[in-house]
Specification:
4 domains, about 800 residues, 8-stranded parallel beta barrel, TIM Barrel, Elongation Factor Tu (Ef-tu), domain 3, globular, alpha/beta
Amino acid sequence: MRIPELLAPVGSMDYLKVAINAGASAVYLSGKDYGARKYAQNFTLDEINEAVNTAHLHNVKVYVTVNTLIKQDELEDVMNYLSNLYAIGVDAVLVQDLGLVELINRHLPKLKIHASTQMTCENHLKLDYIESKGIKRIVLPREMRKEEIQDLKTNMELEIFVHGALCYSYSGQCLMSSFNGGRSGNRGTCAQPCRQKYKVEGLKKEDYYLSPCDLNLFNKLKEISELNIACIKIEGRMRNKEYLAIVISNYRKALNKLKSGKEMESEEISLVFNRGFSQGQFNNTAKRSLRAGHVGLKIGKVIDARKNQIAIKIDDSIKNIPEKGDGLLLVKNDDDYGFEISQNPSITTLNHFKKGKNKQIKDLTRKNKVLIVKKVRQNKKSNFNLNESEVYLTKKNNLIKKAREIENKGNSYVKSKLILTFSIKNKFPQLKGRVTLANKKEIECEVRGNTPFEKPLKKSVTRETIQKQLSKVDNYPYQITQININYDGTLFLPISKINELRRELFEKLEHELVNSTKHKTKKIKLNLKEREKSEIKPCFSFYTNNLSHLKEINNVKRVYLEIPPEYDDLNIIHDEKYNLNHMINFLKEAIEISMTKDYELIWKWPDIAHDKLIKTLNKVRGILNKMHYTIPIMSNNFKGEYGPYSMNITNTETIKSLENYKILTLSPELTKKDYEDIIKFCESQNQLEILVQGSVELMKTRYSLLYGKEIKKAKNNSKNFLIDRNNRRYPIHKSISGEELILFNCEDLSLLKEIEHLKHIGFSNFSIDGRWKDNCYYKIIEIYESALKGNINEKELLKYSPKNTIGNY
């Protein structure tokens, strides 16, 4: 069993104090730039320095998130920011951008790197690659299941999220906010479109289809401790202090109990912000949230609602009984009604209530309790019948009080061990201190008093008095384990001077301790060189999963072929058994069609491929090789020859790090200026490709869109759409895994008017995505060929792609 590090989110210095006092063993925070929560309060460099000093004094580690994608014109600035972080002494930085990893290894090799969950490392191929880059820890995707984590073999430390909000999409693979509002999750500015209501084709009900319940693995800590997990992470840098104090303190207590083989339950963590809880993908029990906001702790059901009162049957397991000033939420179907309890409620038994006696009971452990809440004038009206409503406790006043106590009176989780030695040299007092930190590092200091001991006029200072004064730790997180006093008790010194000596030593120890992790700042100059311009004949690539396209396509250099799923119907639940015959026969037929064609046929693997699917894909490739059907691979697993745009390439350093790839597709999130900056400094321009036409994948998810009865209610449509409040229709398709869903944009990306400019500045590889399109979509290739010659025909394009956007371009 391994008790993991408890990692807490921190949005400001005040929150750092709460996290330390609540029992965090590490915290993660962000500077004002380059963090994935740009709208949190975040820290200045001076504040980060203060935070590191405070945390290290309390044996708490500090990790700084530098986990956005880095654009070409930011490379030097972010490296100098990282140089400052290294000088400050942060314990690690969380990074998403592969190019940034290369630069850190080159310029700041001793700065520890943790791979952000936004790297989307869901299989061994990716883990092996990032481990080869010297990364010390990987934050696994929230979509990983227990058995998948159990099978991982890596020398890197594993970190997992255990509590807090869940994204519908795999982190790092969501472009929805970026394409629909210009606010990129990969750049820290996500607008959270997943928390809005949508409709699904075939269902009348509008619901939070893209909003999973929050994650809560509190009751799975024993299982997690048996998985060799190095760190468990709490989400919530934008939550309030009560959330931080209550969640961290409860997880700390539970982890402490695990050391002695005990487990605990907690209602408290349900009383701070949550959208309802599930254990997510950890044991494949994810479910959809009831509402976008706080739900609270479910405590029972309304059994009677009258004009002046509400009677609630309380579940027998509930320990937090509502009181005056607490908040309640009543939920029934799609309606909810929330209010604060204004008068002291009464508690009776169900038997008394049925008889109309409503006799108050004192023993709150009794079963079959009924809570009677009086209505006041302000909350007598509700727009639905409250009978049979589910009741949630949303606010508990005494919990707010408890959170404040943690903030103001708490202490650090691990105290440093301190040995003191007092002696007299040439009549002057000396005090030595040796602090042993949690990481076994030792700090030694010595101070000398400036007032000599004298012969007593009346009474000497005893050894006991000196020991008593030296035993005071003030506000320092020290545990004094030993005090050595080399003094015979026959001299005199004012007690104030002994206290002064102690304080001087503590200050010196603190100074030495916080400076023990500091380094010199160095200015980093990247000296990026502009490439020489060269003319390369432009060419096109075409994505498809339609065999009829292969028969008709001409004048393209490459075709990226993706195997369509056997069933693309949301009503069909996949059983995770892959049909090898379907895959092999599809590829075999495709290769045979393409043998007489001029293009190169490339098999595009799914962007999300857990190890079970990887094994299947390799088995298919092995069988094809034995049949003498060889085919190159497009994959983001660092083992392919062609890289898709899901690799999130936004700078030339990432391109350099992936030199083994023949072709790399740049991120479609980039602007015109970004493309210009990259091509200007790219040493291998013929390695780059740009998606110029087609549907962009906005989300890749392992969560179901429909649950339970909805699956039966939904019409058996040949096409599945998610529909927003502006009636925009987003196509949804299944991956070949049959498990992952892909949500495509409602409009096609189209850079028809820009392709001449892109060619002029040096780009030569352009791709058109015809997956899930009709049989004639391939004709767009000719329209783009004409555009390269200066003949832009938008009217003709609209025949095949009626809704278009330039995205972020």
